[in-house]
Amino acid sequence: MILVSACLAGVKTRYDGESRDNTAVMRLIAERKAMPLCPEVLGGRGIPREPVEIVGGDGEDVLDGTAKVLDKNGKDYTSEILDGVNEFIRALKRFNADTVILKSKSPTCGMGKIYDGTFKGNLVDGDGVLTAALKREGIRLYNENNCDIIFPDMKAK
């Protein structure tokens, strides 16, 4: 079983109430090889919701307690994000999954690039909170831009 960011599977779980459908991910779901989950929703955040960014570092720093996940008004959502990450990891273990496909740039799911915490659309090197936690667990990680590497017959949209 592969766990995937729900927004890539056509589920409208993004902060703006939309999805970012990905052909390869949706095919995995249809073939019952993958299951969609949204860590932010698992943590109790609604749909739609205020967008958040990591302020003061990246996902590793959030896990270490030296950075926070805030909205543009400074409201702290770190606890909800961490709750969702923990629920996602519980599901991962329950389903014995060893591979996860995540949405890029997200403060939770982003892999390699995330927004810089200024809410100005600037990307910086770093991982989201879930990605950082999954790396600590030794999980194979992909995003919508490279998941076709593991499934060469499925080209990402």
What's the SSE blueprint?
Blueprint: E1 2-5, H1 23-30, E2 34-37, H2 39-42, E3 52-55, H3 59-64, E4 68-71, H4 78-94, E5 99-102, E6 113-115, E7 123-125, H5 129-137, E8 140-143
Parallel strand pairs: 1-2, 1-5, 5-8
Antiparallel strand pairs: 3-4, 6-7
Helix pairs in contact: 4-5
Which keywords apply here?
single chain, 157 residues, alpha/beta, 4-stranded parallel β-sheet, 5 helices
How would you characterize this protein structure?
It is a single chain. This protein has 157 residues and is an alpha/beta fold. The chain has one domain. 28% of the residues lie in helices and 19% in strands. It contains 5 helices and 8 strands, in the order E-H-E-H-E-H-E-H-E-E-E-H-E. The protein has helices spanning 23-30, 39-42, 59-64, 78-94, 129-137; strands at residues 2-5, 34-37, 52-55, 68-71, 99-102, 113-115, 123-125, 140-143. The strands form 3 sheets. The protein has a 4-stranded parallel sheet with strand order 2-1-5-8, sandwiched between helices. The chain has a two-stranded antiparallel sheet with strand order 3-4. Helix 1 (23-30) links the parallel strand 1 and strand 2 (34-37). Helix 4 runs parallel beside helix 5 (129-137). It is globular and about 40 Å long. It starts with a strand and ends in a 14-residue tail after the last strand. The model has no long low-confidence stretch (mean pLDDT 94).
